[in-house]
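Support case: user asked for a sample of complex input and structure output to validate their parser. Sending the pair below.
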Amino acid sequence: MKHPAPTADTPDAALLDRFAAGDRAALDELFRRYRGVAYRVAYRLLGNEADALDAVQDGFVNALSHLDRFGGRSSFKTWLLRVVCNAAHDVGRRLKRAERFPQAPADPSPEHFGPCGLPPADAGIARAELRRSIEAALSRLPAAQRETFVLHVEGELSYREVADALDISIGTVMSRLFYARQKLKELLAHCVTP
Amino acid sequence: MTPAPDNDDALAAYLAGDPAAVRAAAPPEPTEAEWNSVRARAAARLPRRGRRWPTVAALVAAVALVAVGAALWPAQPGAPESANRPAPVPAPPHDPLAEFDVLPVVRAEEVVLYRVPGAGALPVGAPPLAGELVLATVDDVEFMAPHDLWPQTLTGAGDAPMLFAKSR
């Protein structure tokens, strides 16, 4: 049976049913709908565009290949971001094995960094610099805190959804977010506001 | 040097998850060509779905043929009755993780086993700790005041924000 082209109003569940029935237009719509948020989460976990796009690709493939494990227990977005996080970790591990995983911000030359290794302060800090400061600070968070913070802030998931995505309790989500914000504020205060 | 108030505001808003601040600090967006490339590669890796009916039909036909053949095959005269009885199907082993989702972390070919500790017994999948590990009970926790970074903390009864104890 030929389906009408999916629209932005088509519910995720309907798109997944259509995808399961072999409708590639449903896949295109799911990809268009969630590629941005999946990319932002992967980018914040990996720190560069190319690796983030690899993780997005792996994430979509794994999420859609294992829909039986999804089972509709959460939203598709929550499920996808959970799988994208895992894919980002896999990409990170592969890069680490190849000894080219960036532990520092994109520009590692010492003159571009302040005393704590982050970009130095500048009253007229540009948007790009703000972004780099955030990236650098995020890279210094413990992995569990970074993942939780990124899923909540960049992935726009609620506490409940983050808890579902990471298979942890809401209390743990709140605790990790608290310490992540505390640490980020500390890092950014020292390095952006002199 | 004086602080940069605009940046402080932007950072505070970002840390609080303000959507506009998050958008302002968003990473560089890939081009449409890059997105198309990612989508095409993902689509190529996904199994084709919805066109499995010929395989299913062939399977059903094969099963039907075997069933008909088994029904029409004459029983061996003089053979003990138990020989014609189907062998009992063993019960599937209990899977304690059956209700949990399992995500693939590594593939079998990515794991190299160098050494088996002790006498050579390898406990695969055994939980590291039996039962619950109690870190603190309700009586051990005292909530003094919410931190400034977390203004929405509720201090009313029953609103323990960070530690939860299982009710007994």
